[in-house]
Design a protein that fits this description.
about 0% strand, about 425 residues, 18 helices
Length: about 425
């Protein structure tokens, strides 16, 4: 399949583009950190105020349902309107809404309905942002190397936030969820300023869109149809939510698995999570090597199966030092494949449909993250933490077989 022509921005010196992207990256890192602080604070508030089971299930549903129901429709909006304007408007609305909620929560006693309403509102106001950003990068990157660099750095930004967010939340949550929301609102303001500062980079003509609008639901279905018709994407698409489902299960079950193997020091948990992050960063760095970029098809093909076998090995490993090595190995294909998949969509899916495809992908991944802990908890209650990870690892391997044996996936290379 040939690469659709990109709509290039107006001419700008390379130094300006680099400076604009640095501004964008710094702003997005602050924004992602604010989101991570808020989510960690929500999880702690729900658990401490309403109990482990009720709090976890309620918050999980509040995080999942708006995304599952509305993101496919949000993708249509992303494909209809100028994406840089959607980014600006989304951040402005999020800043106002989260600041208002933060002030309100500081003055009101917390209840479960109020907590869940807060989560839903924050989720809904941000639905357009990620599909818009990913789709827009495919327009503004002028070559394959630049696109990979953009995707890699933005993924690294989210990783940094995932690591630092829960740590900072531990200091913030003592002041209440309202304070966490005010911090989140501040980061949205920083993100908005970064978007404005990078407008030379991000301002492009809007996607062509459909010649005749046929209704938002029909246009959403068109995005699904085009995505599943692509010979490579339809093979790798089912693996992505399954990988995140198992990843969420690993995060949940890891403390119990360590205790099962006699590791009682909580520092072991932090060490393994950090090793996982190191592996992801290593996977990103591998794509900086020009020769490795030619093997992105192979990386996407083996990604799911490789992570599956590593999860099984982690479940059966009683040694903490060996587990550290395995968590690094677990992260390497994840980091490289995530960027490779994003770049594939940004080049192989037509520009006017990318928002819908990214929204579809985000919908399935969000659903899987919510389901992962539920499945892991059920299997653990039936057997043990190690048994749960072994079974989920084997299921992940089965899902990874189609891309592993697919020649079209293994041999795919970007057209130069």
């Amino acid at each position: 399949m040939s690469i659709p022509a990109r709509i290039a921005p107006g001419p700008a010196p390379a130094t300006h583009r680099r400076t604009d992207f640095i501004r964008l990256w710094v702003a997005q890192t602050f924004s992602n950190l604010g989101d991570a602080i808020f989510l960690a604070s929500v999880a702690w508030s729900a658990t401490s105020l309403f109990g482990d089971v009720q709090g976890a299930i309620s918050v999980g549903l509040a995080l999942f349902l708006p995304t599952a129901l509305l993101l496919p429709l949000a993708g249509v909006i992303v494909d209809r309107y100028p994406r840089h304007r959607l980014l600006l408007n989304t951040d402005a609305v999020r800043a106002i809404v989260t600041a208002t909620l933060g002030i309100f929560l500081i003055t009101q006693p917390m209840s479960l309905p109020l907590l869940l309403a807060t989560v839903v509102i924050v989720q809904v106001t941000g639905l357009l942002f990620q599909p818009s950003m990913h789709s827009l990068l495919g327009q503004v990157a002028q070559d394959d190397t630049t696109l990979l660099r953009f995707d890699s750095w933005l993924l690294a930004s989210r990783m940094i936030a995932t690591i630092l967010g829960p740590l900072v939340a531990g200091f913030v949550i003592v002041h209440g969820l309202g304070t966490a929301l005010l911090i989140d609102a501040t980061t949205f303001c920083v993100s908005l300023l970064g978007l404005l500062a990078a407008r030379r980079l991000l301002t492009t003509p809007s996607p062509a869109g459909p010649a005749t609008r046929t209704g938002i639901l029909r246009e959403a279905k068109e995005g699904v149809r085009v995505a599943l018709a692509d010979p490579v994407f339809r093979k790798i698409a089912p693996t992505l939510p399954m990988i995140d489902l198992v990843g969420a299960a690993v995060t949940l079950l890891l403390p119990a698995l360590l205790l099962q193997h006699g590791v009682i020091d909580p520092k072991g948990y932090g060490l393994l999570i950090s090793a996982w992050a190191v592996g992801r960063f290593s996977g990103l760095l591998l794509l900086r090597i020009p020769r490795m970029r030619a093997y992105r098809g192979t990386l996407m093909a083996v990604n799911c199966a490789a992570q599956a076998l590593t999860v099984v090995a982690i479940a059966l490993t009683p040694s903490l030092p060996l587990a550290v090595v395995l968590f690094v190995v677990l992260g390497i294909p994840s980091g490289g494949a995530s960027v490779s998949v994003s770049a594939y969509i940004q080049t192989q899916i037509p520009n006017e449909l990318r928002g819908r495809v990214f929204a579809l992908l985000q919908t399935t991944v969000t659903a899987s993250v919510a389901l992962g802990p539920l499945l892991a908890g059920g299997i653990t209650a039936w057997r043990s933490p190690s048994s749960a990870l072994v079974l989920m690892g084997l299921a992940l391997f089965l899902v990874g077989v189609p891309p592993l044996i697919s020649r079209s996936v293994r041999q795919w290379q970007p057209v130069k």
